[in-house]
Design goal:
With 123 residues, the protein is mostly beta strands. Helix content is 0%, strand content 55%.
């Protein structure tokens, strides 16, 4: 079974920075992409950033120029560096691993989610 564990959330003042980490553990042969999402109270979950296995990166317009996604393949870990934080960035941030292959003998792939970490930006 694959598990994702996020860390690095917290309370920060507007203009500050945080770095989120998401470590994937378990039997992982390969994965297609890792993604960060966020969900503010009363709102839908939104995609924040994606990094694919060949390092193609996509950001939501709302975070372009402020957030940076990166990954450490050896550690199966994805990071989200968040700078110039705004109160509207307040949300629970979750990571997802997409297209995870867990067996060398089967081509099946699945998606996995972490529990999320709270990010609160005060004005």
């Amino acid at each position: 079974q694959v598990q994702l564990m996020e860390s690095g959330g917290g309370l920060v003042q507007a203009g500050g920075s945080l770095r989120l980490s998401c470590a994937a553990s378990g039997r992982i042969v390969s994965m297609n992409a890792m993604e960060w999402y966020r969900q503010a109270p009363g709102k839908q979950r939104d995609l924040v950033a994606i990094i694919t296995s060949d390092d193609a990166i996509t950001y939501a317009d709302s975070v372009k120029g402020r957030f940076t996604i990166s990954r450490d393949n050896a550690k199966n870990t994805v990071y989200l560096q968040m700078n110039s934080l705004k109160p509207e960035d307040t949300a629970v941030y979750s990571c997802a691993a997409r297209g995870v292959r867990t067996s060398f003998f089967k081509a099946d792939r699945g998606d996995y989610w972490g529990q999320g970490t709270q990010v609160t930006v005060s004005s």
